[in-house]
Design brief:
By secondary structure, the chain is mainly β. The protein is built from three helices and 19 strands.
C-alpha cells in the first residue's frame, strides 16, 4: 500500500520543450523594445559580467560585455533608412516611405516630405520648376513591411519590399536626384550629367515659418507651429577625376521669393557633377 501511494504521488517528470523562433517584422521591434531603449536618458549603468560554463562544467573565458543603452542608440542611429514601396498602404501621391528616429519621410514624383514627431504639418521639399521624375530603386533589402489592419485578411498588405535608396531620373533636364540616409537624417544627392545646367537647382520649402543661413553654410528651417528647427547641411559638390574626387565650390543662396538656390562654382561642364 505504501509503495502504491509513493508511486501515485511521485512528481511528474519535466517535459522537454523545444525552442521555437518566430520572425518578427523589424519595425515592430524598433517601435517597442528598442524604441524605449533608444529613448533612455542619463548615464548608462555598467553592463553586468557574463560568464558561461564549458562542456566540462568549468567557467570559460568572460563573454563579450552587453552593449550599453548609449552604444545601442549610437549604432542604431547609423543604420540606413528603409524605403518601402507603396503597395496601397501609403495612399495616393506617395511612391515610397521610410521611418527614422523622430521623423518619417514620404517621396512622390521626386519631391520629399518630412513628418516630424509632434508637428502638425509636414515640411515639404519642392524641387522648383522640376518635372515628375521616374523612380528607380536602389539595393533591395532583406526586410519586408507588413500591414495587418482589421480582421479581413484579404485587405492585409504583406511582404512589401524595402530599399536602401530611391533615385528619380530627369527631374530637371539631365539631372537626377537620389534620396537615402540613416535613422538620424535624410540625405539627397543631385546627379548632373555632362552638359546639364546647374542653375536649375532651386528648392522651395512648405510647412516652415522661416529660414536662415548658418555661419557654416547650413540652411536652418523653422518648422511651422513648433519651436523646432531642422537643418539642411551645406552642399558638398565634386567631380570624379583621374586622381579621385575633385571638390567644386557650392553653397545655398536664399532668394527674395523664398526659393533657395544651390549655387555651384566653376567646374568642367563636359564631365558629370
Amino acid at each position: 500500500m505504501l509503495k502504491h501511494l509513493l508511486r501515485r504521488h511521485r512528481p511528474a517528470r519535466p517535459r522537454r520543450v523545444a525552442l521555437h523562433a518566430e520572425w518578427l517584422e523589424p519595425r515592430l521591434l524598433y517601435s517597442a523594445d528598442a524604441g524605449a531603449l533608444l529613448a533612455a536618458t542619463g548615464d548608462p549603468q555598467q553592463a553586468p559580467e557574463t560568464r558561461t560554463l564549458t562542456t566540462s562544467y568549468e567557467y570559460g573565458a568572460q563573454a563579450a560585455s552587453v552593449p550599453t543603452a548609449a552604444e545601442v542608440r549610437a549604432a542604431y542611429a547609423l543604420t540606413p533608412l528603409q524605403f518601402e514601396a507603396n503597395a496601397g498602404q501609403l495612399g495616393e501621391g506617395v511612391d515610397f516611405a521610410a521611418l527614422g528616429i523622430g521623423y518619417a519621410v514620404r517621396l512622390g514624383g521626386g519631391q520629399a516630405e518630412l513628418l516630424l514627431d509632434g508637428a502638425q504639418e509636414a515640411v515639404r521639399l519642392e524641387l522648383a520648376g522640376a518635372a515628375p521624375g521616374t523612380a528607380e530603386t536602389g539595393p533591395q533589402l532583406a526586410t519586408r513591411s507588413n500591414y495587418l489592419v482589421g480582421q479581413d485578411a484579404q485587405q492585409w498588405v504583406t511582404g512589401v519590399a524595402n530599399y536602401g535608396s530611391v533615385l528619380y531620373r530627369d527631374v530637371y533636364d539631365g539631372i537626377d536626384i537620389r534620396y537615402y540616409g540613416n535613422q538620424n537624417q535624410l540625405e539627397y544627392d543631385f546627379l548632373l550629367a555632362p552638359g546639364a545646367d546647374a542653375d536649375k537647382l532651386q528648392l522651395r520649402f512648405h510647412g516652415v515659418s522661416g529660414m536662415a543661413l548658418a555661419d557654416n553654410g547650413d540652411l536652418v528651417l523653422r518648422v511651422a507651429g513648433t519651436g523646432r528647427e531642422i537643418r539642411f547641411q551645406a552642399p558638398v559638390s565634386y567631380q570624379e577625376g583621374a586622381g579621385g574626387r575633385e571638390p567644386v565650390e557650392s553653397h545655398y543662396e536664399v532668394q527674395a521669393d523664398g526659393t533657395v538656390r544651390i549655387v555651384v562654382g566653376a567646374y568642367d561642364g563636359s564631365r558629370a557633377l
